[in-house]
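Quick one: examine the sequence and fold tokens given here and explain what the tokens say about the fold. Here goes:
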Amino acid sequence: MKKILTAILCVLFAVLPFSACQSNTGATKIRLSEVTHSVFYAPLYAAEALGYFEDENIEIDLSNGGGADNVMAAVLSGSADIGFCGPEAALYVLIGGSNNVPTVFGQLTKRDGSFLVSRVDEADTFDWATSLAGKEILAGRKGGVPAMTFEYILNANGLTDGVNVHMNYDVNFNNMTAAFEGGTADYCTMFEPVASEYEKAGKGYIVASVGEASGEVPYTCFIAREKYISENESVIEGFLRAVMKGIAYINDTDSATAAELLKSYFDGTEVSSIETSLNSYKAIDSWQEDMTMTEDAFNRLQDIIENAGELEKRVTLSELVDTSYSSRIYAQLNE
């Protein structure tokens, strides 16, 4: 945890003003830094494509932060108004004793979005407790939530790294698929659309959903400085309203139609792959419809981090998360 907090703080620079800025069109521009770009976050892109942000007089300036550490650093420094990443990034800042702790004000995904890919076709026979025994697995860097979530599942099924299963932490998350294709490990976790495209190419087989096995956790959330939120409450509410409408659209619309809408957000990816990815994520109930984090899910996230030996102390939901905005907007949309 200390290494992660240090990484966040090391890339900070002078704090910029927090008030929302106006675009050339008169709309309020939100500089939004996302942890990575994935079909997993389809409701966010759908909200923009369908004009839901425009309806709220909001213009999204989206950038790829390339990791939770970088996203959190951008939020703390003021170079991003809103960060979109795992809440653990803010949790580490809180536990580290900083007086500059950002607030989680909305949750988009409610489980791990990766899928376990095997070299052999065993989807019908795969079992977490027996199939992975004695095997080598690529699941991300040590201390990262993807790897910690996977370790949590292994431990729950009687498997322990270094004892009866081998977690390979040597490969960078972005290079895992290439390493797996090159012959490293027996299993590899992949997000969509990479997992489906890998299987479609005949290189491997999707055998399980990591998110289904781990249970609900607040996997990716929207985070901002408390000062920014308090000074831009109407903007925060409009932002949440737009994303909630995006969630409803993705959940209620057939995936083929939604895939056509989203194709411009995924250059080089076939529309059929986007459709398959959406179906995969719908099947595991990926998105938090009311965007409101629950106590149970937050505690499970801390269980996962604690199980991996990366949590110095536990905190309460209210210390990190403000659910008032999402609860209010969801209630208004469903009146």
Summary: Confidence is low (pLDDT under 50) at residues 4-19. The longest helix spans residues 233-252. The chain has 16 helices and eleven strands.
